[in-house]
C-alpha cells in the first residue's frame, strides 16, 4: 500500500474517532430537559432482554422508570406531550413525608399523617365499608408509611428537600421543598430525567399517544401508539400506566362525572383523560365524581378571563398568607382543607360568569415573602402578584390585617379558628397604611381528580370483580381511591413517588418469574 493511501486511511480514522468523542461530549453535557426529547436506547437488546413499557412521564412514570433501570430492566417510556414532566414538573408547594430529619421538633414528633389524610378524605372514606374500606386503608397506609423513604430516595439523588412547611389540612409541618429558587416539582423531575437520560437502558419517545392497551386472556402484553408521523406502532411487554387525571378534560370525562363544574377555570391544559385505556380492558373505576377545585388560582390581570389559570401555591397560605373578600374581610380559616376553603369562596358573590370567578385577594407580609421569595418573585415577574401598601387595599382591609396580626402574635384568639400563622411577622402595633404587603387576585379552579382506576397496594390494576389484571399496573393521578373527597397539598407528588416505585418493583418481580 502506498504512503499516500496509508496517510488517507489514518486521516479518516482520526476524523471518525474525533467525531465520536465530540458527539459523546455533546450528549453528556446537554441540558437534561432539552427538546425535542427523543432518546434511543444505547444498549443492544437481545431477544431475551427484559423490557417494560411506561405510559406517562410525570413523577409516577419517572419513579417507576428509575426503579426498573436500577434493576437492569430496559424501559421504553411513551409521553404524549412534547416535553417530559407532566403536571409533576409544575408542582410548587412540595412533597409530603413523615417522619423525616428535616421536620421540626424531636424525631418522630409527627404521628398524625395517616389520621390527617383520612380526615381530609371526608365522607367518601368514612362511608365506605367492606373490601373497599380495607383497600382504601391499605393504600393510605402505604402512602404514609413509605413517605419518609421517598424523601430519602430523592435526597440521595441530589434533590434538596430541606425546607418544610405546614399546609392546609395538615396538623404538622411535613411538606418538603428546597431552600433555593428551583420549585420542588422541577427539581425532582429534572434530577430523575438527567439520571435516566444517562442510562443505556432507558428510551423516551415524546409526542406519542397510546391509543390502545391489549389484553390476551387475562394478561396485558402490549400497547399501540401513534407519534407525530401518524404511523401506528406497537410495543410488547408489561405496562405501567401513569398518565395523570382528567381535570383538563372539560368536554369529556369531567363533563360526564361533574357537569356542575362547567365554566370553571382549570389549572390544567385541555386534554382528554386516559382512564378509558384501562376500562377498555376491564379496569374498575372509583370516585370519578370526586374532583378537587383548588381555592387559589391566580387571575392574571393581563388576561383575566382566560379559562386556564396559574396555581397560587398552597404554601403561600401555609407560610402565613390570608384571604380577603372584595369587602376587605377575611371569611375562612386559610389553613382548612382545600375543599373547605373553596366552599367558603364560592359562597361569596360571583364576580364573573364565564369562566366562573370570584373576587378574592391573597395577602402576604414581608415575613411570608422572606420564606417564599422564590415563589413570590416568580409570581411578580409573571404579573400575577404585586407589591403595595395596605392603604391601597382600603380601610376595611387595614382593620382586618390588624386583627389578624393580633391573633398571629398570640394576643387574642383568631375568630375563624386559625392557630398556625407560618412566618407572618407584621406585629399589631406596626400595622399601618404604609405597611408593605404582596397581593394577588385568586379564584377557585379545577385542579386535581381524586377518581380513577382501582388498584391495590401493589399498584396492580383491578377489574370489576376486584381481581388483578395481569401485566398492567397504574400509579399517580390516573388512580382512584387514595384521597377520597379531598387531597392534601403535597400528597400528589408523594403518591406518584410511592406508587411509581412500587409499580416499578412489582414489574421487576413479574419479569423475574
Question: Can you describe this structure?
Answer:
This protein is α+β, with helices and mostly antiparallel strands and 513 residues long. It is 32% helix and 20% strand. The chain is built from 15 helices and 23 strands. The longest helix has 27 residues.
Keywords:
alpha+beta; seven-stranded mixed beta sheet; six-stranded antiparallel beta sheet
Biggest sheet record: 7 strands, mixed
Q: How many H/I helices?
A: 15
Overall 3D form:
globular
Which strands sit side by side, in order, in the main sheet? 1-7-3-2-11-23-22
Helix content: 25-40%
Taking pLDDT < 50 over at least 5 consecutive residues as the criterion, the unreliable ranges are 1-36
Q: What is the rounded Rg?
A: 25 Å
Instruction: Give the distance, in angstroms, between the N- and C-terminal Cα atoms.
Output: 57 Å
User: Which structural class fits the helix and strand makeup?
Assistant: alpha+beta
How many strands? 23
Mean of residue pLDDT values: 92
- Residues in β-strands, percent: 15-25%
Task: Walk me through the topology.
Elements: H1 3-29, E1 38-39, E2 51-55, H2 59-70, E3 74-79, E4 95-96, H3 113-121, H4 123-126, H5 130-145, H6 147-156, E5 163-165, E6 175-177, H7 184-197, E7 202-206, E8 209-216, E9 219-226, E10 232-236, E11 239-241, H8 253-257, H9 276-279, E12 285-286, E13 291-298, E14 310-311, H10 315-318, E15 322-324, H11 338-346, E16 350-352, E17 357-358, E18 360-364, H12 366-371, H13 373-381, E19 386-389, H14 395-408, E20 436-449, E21 452-453, E22 460-462, E23 468-474, H15 491-512
Parallel strand pairs: 2-3, 2-11, 3-7, 11-23
Antiparallel strand pairs: 1-7, 4-6, 5-6, 8-9, 9-10, 12-21, 13-14, 13-20, 15-18, 16-17, 18-20, 19-20, 22-23
Helix pairs in contact: 2-7, 2-15
Amino acid at each position: 500500500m502506498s504512503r499516500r493511501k496509508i496517510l488517507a486511511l489514518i486521516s479518516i480514522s482520526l476524523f471518525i474517532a474525533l467525531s465520536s468523542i465530540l458527539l459523546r461530549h455533546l450528549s453528556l453535557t446537554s441540558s437534561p430537559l432539552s427538546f425535542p426529547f427523543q432518546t434511543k436506547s444505547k444498549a443492544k437488546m437481545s431477544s431475551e432482554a427484559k423490557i417494560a413499557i411506561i405510559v406517562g412521564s410525570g413523577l409516577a412514570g419517572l419513579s417507576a422508570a428509575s426503579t426498573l433501570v436500577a434493576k437492569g430492566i430496559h424501559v421504553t417510556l411513551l409521553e404524549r406531550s412534547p416535553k417530559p414532566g407532566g403536571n409533576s414538573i409544575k408542582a410548587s408547594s412540595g412533597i409530603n413525608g413523615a417522619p423525616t430529619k428535616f421536620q421540626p421538633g424531636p424525631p418522630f414528633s409527627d404521628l398524625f399523617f395517616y389520621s390527617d389524610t383520612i380526615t381530609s378524605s371526608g365522607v367518601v372514606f368514612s362511608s365506605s365499608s367492606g373490601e373497599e374500606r380495607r383497600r382504601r386503608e391499605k393504600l393510605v397506609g402505604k402512602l404514609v408509611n413509605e413517605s419518609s423513604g421517598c424523601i430519602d430516595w430523592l435526597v440521595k439523588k441530589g434533590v434538596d428537600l430541606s425546607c418544610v412547611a405546614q399546609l392546609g389540612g395538615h396538623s404538622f409541618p411535613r411538606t418538603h421543598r428546597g431552600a433555593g429558587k428551583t420549585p420542588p416539582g422541577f427539581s425532582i423531575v429534572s434530577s430523575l430525567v438527567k439520571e435516566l437520560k444517562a442510562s443505556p437502558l432507558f428510551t423516551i419517545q415524546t409526542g406519542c399517544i397510546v391509543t390502545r392497551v391489549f389484553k390476551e386472556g387475562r394478561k396485558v402484553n402490549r400497547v399501540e401508539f401513534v407519534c407525530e408521523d401518524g404511523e401506528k406502532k406497537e410495543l410488547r411487554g408489561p405496562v405501567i400506566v401513569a398518565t395523570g387525571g382528567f381535570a383538563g378534560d372539560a368536554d369529556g370525562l369531567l363533563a360526564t362525572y361533574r357537569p356542575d363544574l362547567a365554566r370553571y377555570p382549570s389549572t390544567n391544559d385541555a386534554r382528554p383523560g386516559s382512564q378509558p385505556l384501562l376500562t377498555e380492558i376491564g379496569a374498575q373505576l372509583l370516585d370519578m365524581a370526586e374532583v378537587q377545585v383548588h381555592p387559589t388560582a391566580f387571575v392574571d390581570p393581563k388576561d383575566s378571563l382566560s379559562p386556564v389559570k396559574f396555581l397560587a401555591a398552597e404554601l403561600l397560605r401555609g407560610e402565613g398568607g390570608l384571604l380577603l373578600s372584595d369587602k376587605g374581610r377575611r371569611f375562612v380559616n386559610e389553613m382548612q382543607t382545600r375543599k373547605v376553603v373553596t366552599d367558603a369562596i364560592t359562597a361569596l358573590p360571583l364576580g364573573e360568569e364565564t369562566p366562573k370567578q370570584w373576587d378574592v385577594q391573597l395577602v402576604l407580609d414581608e415575613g411570608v415573602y422572606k420564606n417564599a421569595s422564590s415563589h413570590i418573585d416568580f409570581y411578580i415577574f409573571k404579573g400575577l402578584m404585586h407589591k403595595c401598601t395596605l392603604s391601597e387595599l382600603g380601610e376595611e382591609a387595614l382593620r382586618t390585617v390588624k386583627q389578624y396580626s393580633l391573633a398571629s402574635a398570640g394576643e387574642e384568639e383568631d375568630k375563624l379558628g386559625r392557630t398556625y400563622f407560618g412566618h407572618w411577622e407584621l406585629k399589631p402595633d406596626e400595622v399601618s397604611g404604609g405597611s408593605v404587603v404582596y397581593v394577588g387576585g385568586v379564584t377557585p379552579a379545577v385542579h386535581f381528580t381524586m377518581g380513577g382506576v382501582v388498584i391495590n397496594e401493589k399498584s396492580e390494576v383491578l377489574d370489576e370483580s376486584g381481581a388483578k389484571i395481569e401485566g398492567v399496573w397504574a400509579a399517580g393521578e390516573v388512580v382512584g381511591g387514595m384521597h377520597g373527597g379531598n387531597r392534601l397539598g403535597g400528597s400528589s407528588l408523594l403518591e406518584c413517588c410511592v406508587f411509581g416505585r412500587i409499580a416499578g418493583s412489582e414489574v421487576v418481580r413479574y419479569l423475574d418469574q
